[in-house]
Every structure is written in C-alpha cells, then in structure tokens.
Amino acid sequence: MNPRESASTPTLVSLVICDQVIDDKLTNKKSAIGIFNTVLVPKTPTTINQLALLASITEINGRAELEIRLVNDGDNSVLFSGRGAVDAPDPLAVVDLLFAMQGLQIPVAGQYAFEILSRGEPLGRRRFQVLTRPLPTPPGPGPAT
C-alpha cells in the first residue's frame, strides 16, 4: 500500500444522478441540474446521451482509490466501470467528485444502479429505472371530406 493511500474506508455522503452539474469556479459551489431517478426511452437497447453524477465523499486519510460502476440490478452485470484516485487535505474534508458521462449503452429496460467502491468495498449506490414508452404518434391530417 502506498504510504499516502488511506487505510480506512471513506464514507459516501451523497450520490446524485442528474442531467448536468454546474461547477462555479469562484465559489467552488456545485449545482445539480435536472435530478432524476427514471429515464424514459422509446425502445431498448438505447443510449443515454448525457448524464452526470455528483458524489460527495469524506473520511479520506490521504489518498483513496475509488471505482465507479454502472450495474444492471436484475442480473448484477457491470455495464461500465472506471477507476481513479482522490486526495483529501484532511479526513474531515468533504470532497465533491463530478462524473460527466456521454453515450452510456443500456441494453434493456429495468432497474440499474451506480456504485462507488473503495478497494473493492462498496461505499454506496444510487438506483434508477429505465422505462420504455413509445413516442406519441404525431397527429395526422383529419379525415378526408
């Protein structure tokens, strides 16, 4: 283990799924825009063009290795996974992490979850549903008279 790497498990304070996150560089405040728990699509398989996750984590002693995963709750298959490390100035600091994603492939309608892990241990997860709803048929010309 790297001497800067955290020996304790960090704590996930929050995990929000939204359309986008605005990060104000002057105040360091983040605004989650378009928070949601359900995605409506006309059919599956489908692609979610844009999605953002805002995760807040604390109790990081030095450096923590993190993994983010998108899983299908139905069969626990992993659709997406990414790894990285985060540093904290002290264990009481809350570190906000922004994950901006594009082009997520969703194979079937159902329940999904984003998971945050540290050294293979789950810190938390956020579920969302993907539902199919066919697009409404645009009104056509009225009956011929």
Annotate the secondary structure layout.
Elements: E1 11-23, E2 30-35, E3 38-41, E4 46-58, E5 63-72, E6 78-87, E7 95-106, E8 110-118, E9 121-132
Parallel strand pairs: 3-9
Antiparallel strand pairs: 1-2, 1-4, 4-7, 5-6, 5-8, 8-9
Describe this structure in words.
With 145 residues, this protein is mainly β. It has one domain: Immunoglobulin-like (Sandwich), CATH 2.60.40. Helices cover 0% and strands 61% of the residues. It contains no helices and nine strands. The strands form two sheets. A five-stranded mixed sheet has the order 3-9-8-5-6, with no helix packed on it. It has a four-stranded antiparallel sheet with strand order 2-1-4-7, with no helix packed on it.
Features:
145 residues; mainly beta; Immunoglobulin-like; five-stranded mixed β-sheet; 9 strands; 0% helix
- CATH-defined architecture: Sandwich
CATH topology: Immunoglobulin-like
Major sheet description: 5 strands, mixed
Structural class: mainly beta
Cα distance spanning the termini: 81 Å
Domain module tally: 1
CATH class: Mainly Beta
Residue stretches low in confidence (pLDDT < 50, at least 5 long) are none
SSE sequence, one letter per element: EEEEEEEEE
What topology, given as strand order, has the largest sheet?
Answer: 3-9-8-5-6
| Record field, number of beta strands | 9
Percentage of residues in strands: over 45%
Number of helices: 0
Radius of gyration: 19 Å
Tell the overall outline: elongated
Helix proportion range: under 10%
Oligomer: single chain
Mean pLDDT: 91
